[in-house]
Amino acid sequence: MVLGLRENAAQFALLVAVNALVGGMVGQQQTVLPLLAEAEFGLTGYTFIFTYVAAFGITKAIANYFAGTFSDRYGRKPVLMIGWLFAIPVPLMLIAAPNWWWVVAANVLLGINQGLTWSTTVVMKIDLVGPTRRGLAMGLNEAAGYGAVAVSSLLAGYLAEHHGLRPAPFLLGLAYAALALVLTGLFIRETRDYAHLEAIGHTPRADGRHDHLHAELTNRQIARHTSLTEPALASASHAGLVNNLNFGLSWGLFPLLFATADLTVAQIGLLFALYPGVWGAGQLITGGLSDRIGRKHLITAGMALQAAALALIAISDGFPGWALGTVLLGIGTAMVYPTLLAVIGDVAHPIWRGRAVGIYRVWRDLGYAVGAILGGIVADLMGLHAAVWAAAIISAAAALLVATRMYETHPPRPHAIDCRETVSIRPDTMSWSSRLPSYRVWRR
């Protein structure tokens, strides 16, 4: 058993493919549902329309917590399989929905699916690659997921324009869920033992900053450090919330804002796809870049760029300005998204990394609900452009928080860890402070 991206390329590639299917489940509905709300259900209040985004965000946040806890306790693969089982009813409910509450209920199930599957694929990739290529691994993971969001948004917009809002766009989701269950059940392997291997060679920071973050922390201590007390973990959690606040607001609001300029459904789909498309592709660069130049400044600059992009979208009223704004928003998000996950991997001990990722993603994905509710209320009271301005101001504040509180977490390049034997670990019977004679660890 060997840690490393190249050494585990086949499993890593399978997990990238599975995470693309996770993103596709979201993309199938993002362009279509706001239009469906107005065209078929006669909804006009922005706050009411955004209920499905809020329901998705809250349930995904809760599912993230359980994904992290259960993956540390029971293993990664069972959590991944259960997450995909929750996906099967989603497209069927959207196709058959007789009223808006069916759509909300479908997004509750989608939130559970996304929380369990996306969190678990993140943890599994971190398990496989070890400490040296964490940023690159997260860039590839998030690029696959959000690239699939963009492609599926385009496909759904095309299908909706040529075949109607239902059922054609949602057949994509049904195909994604079926394929993911086959891949996960037959080809994905358990990765928890890789985290245990990394724990054997875990080396504390030379500056002693993480000495209080030992392997025996309780769930409550992990939650407190990740949410409030540990500067890097807490700053990452708060920046993640604001990042997804922007995404949640855009999910519910951008199609309605773009529709005010009498654009076609296909044009709206293109504009909406630009944001996750640039975001997804950009992470192929920014994830690895954070391994070379560090995390903090990339996150600070990315949040500031998101603020500027939202301001541009707010002052624009046509396709050119909105297109440039969504591209810049995608670049800013690409700078932030994989880097925040890499920060969690840098700081969290391998033994409780899954739980730390889960807590971080609770905060981050609550941003969907906060963005949807905030965007809906401000849009109802002051208009669509004002809601975008509000998100721009909050993003600028997040950039300032990271700049002043987060420290650089990217460690010096450690020795690679190699285990030349097949190992079998029983976490319930071992103490991490004890010596494990079944391991041989080489440092190269």
Describe this structure in words.
The structure is a single chain. Helices cover 75% and strands 1% of the residues. The protein is an all-alpha fold and 444 residues long. The chain has one domain (9-193, 225-428): Growth Hormone, Chain: A. A two-stranded antiparallel ribbon has the order 1-2. The longest helix is centred in the N-terminal third of the chain and has 30 residues, at 100-129. The chain is globular.
Gist of the model:
With 444 residues, the chain is mostly helical. It has helices spanning 9-30, 32-39, 46-49, 51-74, 76-85, 89-96, 100-129, 134-163, 168-186, 192-200, 219-229, 231-259, 265-293, 296-315, 319-347, 353-382, 384-405, and strands spanning 417-418, 442-443.
What structural keywords apply?
444 residues, mainly alpha, Growth Hormone, Chain: A, two-stranded antiparallel ribbon, globular, membrane, transmembrane, transmembrane helix
Q: Can you tell me the number of structural domains?
A: 1
**What's the CATH architecture name?**
Up-down Bundle
| Widest sheet: strand ordering | 1-2
Distance between the termini: 15 Å
Q: Let me know the number of strands.
A: 2
Secondary structure: helix percent: over 70%
Order of helical and strand elements = HHHHHHHHHHHHHHHHHEE
SS strand fraction: under 5%
Map the helices and strands.
Layout: H1 9-30, H2 32-39, H3 46-49, H4 51-74, H5 76-85, H6 89-96, H7 100-129, H8 134-163, H9 168-186, H10 192-200, H11 219-229, H12 231-259, H13 265-293, H14 296-315, H15 319-347, H16 353-382, H17 384-405, E1 417-418, E2 442-443
Antiparallel strand pairs: 1-2
Helix pairs in contact: 1-7, 1-8, 1-9, 4-5, 4-7, 4-16, 5-7, 5-9, 6-7, 6-9, 7-8, 7-10, 7-16, 8-9, 8-13, 8-15, 11-12, 11-16, 12-13, 12-15, 12-16, 12-17, 13-15, 14-15, 14-17, 16-17
Protein name: MFS transporter
Domain Major facilitator superfamily (MFS) profile: 12-410
Transmembrane segments: 12-31, 43-67, 79-101, 143-161, 168-188, 253-278, 298-316, 322-345, 366-382, 388-407
